[in-house]
Task: structure prediction
Amino acid sequence: MNERFSGVRNRPTSASGGEPEFFRRMVAASADGFAYLDRDLTYRAANATYLSSWDLTSGQVIGRRVDEIMDRDFYAKEVKPRLEACLAGERVVYEAQLPRRGVRTGWGEVSYAPWLDELGEVDGVVVCVHDITARHAANNSLSRLGEIVETAQTEVYVFDPEHLCFEQVNQGGRSNLGFGMDELAAMTPLDLMPDYDTPTFIRLLEPLRQGSKSQVVLQTRHRRKDGTCYPAEIRLQLLGKEPRFVALTTDTTERQRAEEAIKHLAFFDPLTGLSNRRLLMDRLARAVSASRRSQLTGALIFIDLDDFKTLNDTLGHDQGDRLLRQVAKRLSSCIRETDTLARLGGDEFVVMLERLSGRAEEAATQAEVIANKLLAALREPCALENHEYRCSASMGVTLFGRRPVRVEELMKQADLAMYRAKAAGRDTVRFFDPRMHVEASARAALASRLRLGLDHGEFLLHYQSQVDGAGQVTGAEGLLRWQHPQRGLLEPAAFIRLAEETATILPLGRWVVEMACAQLTSWSERTETAGLTLAINISAVQFHHPDFVAQVFAAIERHGCDPNRLKLEITENLLRDDREGTIAKMSVLKERGIAFALDDFGTGYSSLADLGRLPFKELKIDRSFVQDLVTNERDAAIARTIIALGDTLHLDVIAEGVETEAQRDWLAGHGCHAFQGYLFGRPGPAATSATRLDA
Result:
């Protein structure tokens, strides 16, 4: 849509333009002012002519209520009662002087049309302002009627009250109808209005015959000479001391198209032409009510494209938009005409299915069949400029039927199920069940408690010894624990992922670095522990923060510890993003003596090229490979490979999770001479671990 129509994004509905784009351009360029108000009388859209008529800008109008925009007295007297009547279902037309900067200058013909939803209920107001300054001046003097009628831009028809014969039709009327004045002089208004008969028209004119100064407004059709008709709004009024009936006629073809365009802007997504969130929520509310009455089941399918951000970042947003339009077409082809497909924004789509089986099990099967059909359609290659892109999606499904439920709750349920599909590996479908809601509530409570726990000092570090081949303690790993007030001592598996998702890991990670530096300083004061190293785990979220390096250096300076004794353990997942930035950060930290260990090696993804470039000092064999390596040849083969790789790249290798002498002996026999695990001591607070660390 043309940017001059405020409040709406400047995007066509299709690559080729299409009718909605034409409507929006037409509204934007119209000489009449158009605006759309929702039921709260808040401006949602307005074209440039409308803004100009009130001497306002889009920033002063869009998103604000009418009573916040207009002069208080003008609103109370002229506008408020008429808008209320419109919201009650009436079409309102009136004339008013338009106040600009507190001064009433020109005259406008203002019409309020109730906007009806699919069930005929008023859902907003379409406002049209037509400049009638010239016409208003004409009404003040009948003696000037002939001149003004002829030059008026609107169609004007003058006819006598007695015989209803046309006395004058201006150039605008003659041109639109195709009749000459000689032809019109032999005609009456009824010859031009196929929708009215003589008795009805005479009855409509009766108030004017009685001297009423009010207008009689007709919504009808006007017939041209060639037989075609156009929609017209006719305002009949009585003028002059020698009474004449004047019909002021407006061709409303453009207005009707503009109203349709405004509806499209209010209820449909401008990029894809699909229903938007507002229309979806309205239809969903009706579908929920209908399902309760019919005892049939409905379903809501949340669709989120996988890795759409990567496409936008690599190929550009124009290609992302092109993909979204193709996705919209494919999804539309997979559903019934009675179903609703909506785009919520970004890469999120929703399908609402109605009138499925009354039995929940059968309805679930029906919904699953459609969801899998949608998945299959999306997997087909999409043609982008110079690229063939393969798309996939994660889908969440929830059912609704006899049980009363709020539409907002249904949206949350489908959203939860969709995230469960993503967690399951993407390109799949998952159904909502009540346990998901319980889990989500528990996660929200835990996330809130995480922040409180950090503020209240509920976190602590436990230390587990690391030993060499001779059994001598060389250092320890600091392991984070949370002393939860209700759930007791929690290990990281219970809260670290949530901390990363909520960004609580940033202050929590800073706290761990501070505690590690303080502990190294404490150990340095005793001969028995001065030479120990301390390893701590670093989250990928924490590592990629712009201030991470500065925070580590600041903690070292603050506590005065030896950076050569500090070891940072990172996982393979951290290496997936921003390799060059990762190498740069690690190199800066290494220059200060800080060492790096690659934790859980073999469980994620690492290329040998990355290992060769990154400044690691140590590889850690994950406990999952150590547990059964004595009896499981696959685990043994992986452990041997890691040990050999470490030897080739001149990296130290340490095995974690060593619990038996048989495991230690196997590892030592294959060249691994550093260990960590229950065989050498369980993790514990610094005070209780001191004896083992001193040994």
About this structure: Residues 465-480+503-694 form a domain with the TIM Barrel fold (CATH 3.20.20.450). Confidence is low (pLDDT under 50) at residues 1-19. The first strand starts at residue 33 and ends at 38.
